Amino acid sequence: MTDLLLNHLGGRWVAGSSKGSTLVDPVLGSDLVRVDCTGLDLAAGFGFARDEGGAALRALTYRERAELLSAVAGVLQANRDAYYQIACANSGTVKNDSAVDIEGAIYTLSTYAKFGASLGDRRALPDGDAQRLGKDASFQVRHVQVPSRGLALFINAFNFPAWGLWEKAAPALLSGVPVVLKPATATAWLAQRMVKDVIDAGVLPAGALSILCGSPAGLLDALQPVDVVSFTGSAETAARIRAHDAVTRRSVRLNVEADSLNSAVLLPGEAAGTPAFDLLVKEVVREMTAKSGQKCTAIRRVFVPVDLFDAAAQALAARLAGVTVGNPRNESVRMGALASRAQLDSLLDGLGLLRQQAELLHDGAAHRLVDADPAVACCVGPTLLGCRDGDGADRVHDIEVFGPVATLVPYRDVGHAVSMVRRGQGSLVASLYGSDPSALATLSIELADSHGRVHVVSPEVAASHTGHGNVMPQSLHGGPGRAGGGEELGGLRALNFYHRRAAIQAGTAVLDGLAL
Ligand code: NAP
Question: In 140-244, where does DSSP find H-type helix?
């Protein structure tokens, strides 16, 4: 039988009491490890995190907690080779795609260590200047931000087991809030191994970091009003969490990152073969194929002027045809597997629904798998669909196929493009491609209300832009409406979620003594 991964709760490693779930290699179909968290005393474990981990973190200053983040990043760097092996086996990703997750995690931690160092040796943060409450300055109000005294529970998606943990844990730990992670079961191994390495290295106070592997019963029941939950996953699970008593009755603060039908838009006036056109083609193919399209930020809909539909279809299909798909252990393979059989089935279902309203411009099924058995491996080639009537096709704007699938849609004018982009009902990111700075700026503002991020690619940033789908710690991540309404990252803005804001009303001498 495969090894059982342990949970870390209450400051110690503990096994669940049943057989658990087996994690599977999505390329070879072989069993890897098991996870289980049945029968754990969540209330006691969460209490330990709040009382021991939280207290120890809050006793430190922001600068000292920033040093903890640097130490965590150092531990991960020292063990990174093992992470690549686990990612390849459990997520089926090629090295470049594993790097997005693993190096992205380390970079985000290191960046938050720098942000935190700039906050210095204090334990509370100012929020604006003092304002008079009366005619003179003798009695004023000052707003402060202080660390929440609860824990931060992260319920994460399967697609970023490493980055998904540390992009949330970095601002939480920097804020002085202990972390309890519940990774998605299918790919929990990498997150568990990282947590194990950090715990074993002894760089964090006891109780500052816990992990529950598997699907713990009563997870949300163990939360108290001081806690916060950050959820990443499907809109359906988000709806269930939103309806739980912890949120509706105990006012546990909740952040949701959910589905998103992200867009790429080529502005009018860019002929086929111009730099902006070529940049769109390159970026769409990269986004469709990176991590086999299993990125919440991946481009799902591509909008081009109607007279460029055929040229764009040809250019995209030609590039997609060169993508090698299969076993990530083979160095000629550029795109590995989907994370699980469930994801492959879900992709095929979604593709079937989209195909009823869209034509096939490039068929992923035509890709021969390299070093992988099609009957076993959860591998699928990239598929480009085309939908010439974007107004009449509701599914293109509504069904998120979480894999290497995108749909090309023509538009008549910018207003028409905007109206179809908005049918995504709120998305994480839109990218714009063009060479007219004024038109790009105008469209950026136009789309800002319905997106957490607008990524603008013009020829002069061809070599320096960070990529449509890459989430940088300096920039906001999250999106309104269907995307969940959450906010993560965005530099020090991320700390807001882990702090409580309060107004202190007092005389000048007291306000001067707040040590902000
Ligand atoms: P999911 O099925 O909703 O699962 C997400 C997490 O929720 C997993 O850890 C899962 O645990 C847990 N969970 C499931 N039911 C639960 C319940 N009743 N109570 C508490 N936790 C529960 O989503 P997924 O399939 O892992 O992720 C794919 C989706 O995530 C995609 O739709 C994608 O759009 C979205 N996503 C969004 C972002 C973003 O930043 N906006 C990023 C990545 C992914 P188990 O695994 O143990 O079931």
Answer: 163-175, 188-201, 235-242
Q: Is the CB of 198 under 6 A from ligand 1?
A: no
Q: Which of 406, 433, 213 has the alpha carbon at shortest distance from 300? A: 406
Residues annotated as part of the active site: 257, 296
State in Å: Cα 257 to ligand 1 middle: 9
**Which DSSP helix (H) or strand (E) runs through 329?**
none
Query: CA 184, CA 74: separation in Å to the nearest integer?
Result: 25
Model pLDDT for residues 188-236, shown as the tens digit of each residue:
999 999 999 999 999 999 999 999 999 999 999 999 999 999 999 999 9
- Which residue type is seen at 41? D
CB 232 less than 6 A from any atom of ligand 1:
yes
Through-space distance between the first and last CA atoms of the chain, rounded to whole angstroms = 55
- Whether 163 lines ligand 1, by a CB cut-off of 6 Å, is no
Count other Cβ atoms within 10 Å, centred on residue 264.
27
Could you tell me which of 238, 263, 275 has the C-alpha nearest to residue 390?
Answer: 263
- For each of the domains in the chain, give its residue range(s) and CATH number, in order of start: 4-258+489-512 (3.40.605.10), 262-473 (3.40.309.10)
Q: How far is CA 479 from CA 239, 259, 458, in A?
A: 16, 10, 23
Whether ligand 1 lies within 6 angstroms of the CB of 159 is answered as yes
- pTM, two decimals, is 0.96
Judged by DSSP in three states, 385 sits in strand
What is the four-CA torsion angle of 203, 206, 208, 212, rounded to 10 degrees? 110
* Residue of the CA atom closest to atom 42 of ligand 1: 296
Model pLDDT for residues 444-467, shown as the tens digit of each residue: 999 999 999 999 999 999 999 999
Query: Considering only CA atoms, which residue is closest to atom 41 of ligand 1?
Result: 257
Helix (H) or strand (E) holding 126: strand 125-126
Mean pLDDT of the chain: 97
- pLDDT tens-digit readout, 349-407: 999 999 999 999 999 999 999 999 999 999 999 999 999 999 999 999 999 999 999 99
Please report, for residues 144, 146, 147, 150, 406, the alpha-carbon distance to residue 172 in angstroms, rounded to integers and kept in the order given: 17, 12, 9, 11, 35
Residue 158 near ligand 1, beta carbon < 6 Å: yes
| Three-class SS state of 256 | strand
Q: How far is the CA of 113 from the centre of ligand 1 (A)?
A: 28
Say which residues have a Cβ less than 8 Å from residue 96's Cβ, sequence separation at least 6. Answer: 290, 334
Q: List the one residue out of 411, 393, 386, 413 whose CA is nearest residue 315.
A: 386
Angle at 418 between CA 413 and CA 419, to 5 degrees: 100
Q: How far is the CA of 294 from the centre of ligand 1 (A)?
A: 12
Atom of ligand 1 nearest to the CA of 234: 3
Provide the β-strand partners of residue 325: 335, 369
Q: CB of 452 within 8 A of CB of 430?
A: no
Residue 108 and residue 163 in contact, taking contact as beta carbons nearer than 8 Å: yes
